[in-house]
Design a protein that fits this description.
Radius of gyration: 21 Å
Number of strands: 0
Order of helices and strands: HHHHHHHHHHHHHHHH
Strand content: under 5%
Shape: globular
Number of helices: 16
Helix content: over 70%
Amino acid sequence: MIWLGALLVGALLGLLGIAWLNALMNFIATVYTRLFQLLAVPTIVLAVITTFATFGSKGQGRVFVHTLTYTLLTTFAAAVVGAVLYVAVAPGNLPAEALGAAEVKDMGGQLSYVDHIVSVIPNNIVQPFLEGNVLSLLLLAFAIGIGLSRLGDSENKTVVVRLLLGFQELLFLLIRGLIATLPLGIVAFSAQLSAQLSAGVVADSIGKYVVVVLGGNVVQFFVVLPLFLVARGLNPIHVLGRMMPAVLMALFTKSSAATLPVTMDSAEQRLGIDKKISRFVLPICTTINMNGCAAFILVTSLFVMQQGGTAITLPLVATWTVISVVSAVGNAGVPMGCYFLTLSLMSGVGAPVAVLGIILPIYTIIDMVETAENVWSDSCVAAMTNHDLAS
């Protein structure tokens, strides 16, 4: 309600057409955008490293193999559904003045597809940090996380992991502080946009974007995940009925981690999943199984890049489908994680990140649906893993 109130207040302020007020709102919006960019890159890098370093070390045995396989399959399916819907619905462009003076880099016109992939591979460890090349940083984070998971237990490994986790906790604290002041940022973003844009064009473009994001979640929830269950010989209606308390709690809390106790209790007491499986699979899935996040990253990235003049081609969609899956798996429970991940990625390719200011007030609704989908996907992975290992 506070966010919606801030959105309305900002819209009214922008409609007043007062020059000094518009300048103030532009200043505040710019400050918030820069703060998001400041925190986003280290947050995503640490999230990916700590996720693979912490859970990769548990990767011995059939349970982990099944969990990781189903996680990747369902997450990839969610991203593909989002990509198909985006191409089919084809959200339009925002007015040119909405993009302001944001730096734009056309990924399609200057580099070939192969050249772009080569440019992502770093040739030294410092350059990606200096250039803010998030794709290279993701690659490094993935390699470092897997490397740490393969190291034997030792005091040195423990020190490194604890140091990374400590930095991550510090970043979470800073992020929570920024989120606490976010209503002011929403007022500024809303005022900035209402002063600059034609409401009809924005409604059409953003409306189609929301249809793609929420439509992808609905298709994944009611069609794709049930098909996975049916393919393993499970009744999706029975599984969803037994896991409904966890799904409903996730919808209203917007937190997979907060819902985890209810998810585990429903899985064990209502669905009958073996405790050894549920207590191993569900905590891992809560961290790495992010179906809704993968779809959000892909659709939002395509939408933002399109606003910067990037042509939405098949190679581009395929590349960002893979990036969205890897990023979602590395989203280790960061507050507003999907939003920060997308912001970080868009900053790295020079896309007009100001567009994310339009999406921000809507994100709380999207987050509710995504979290419910994530918990439902966690439940499906646990049920399929239990079925495979019990048979």
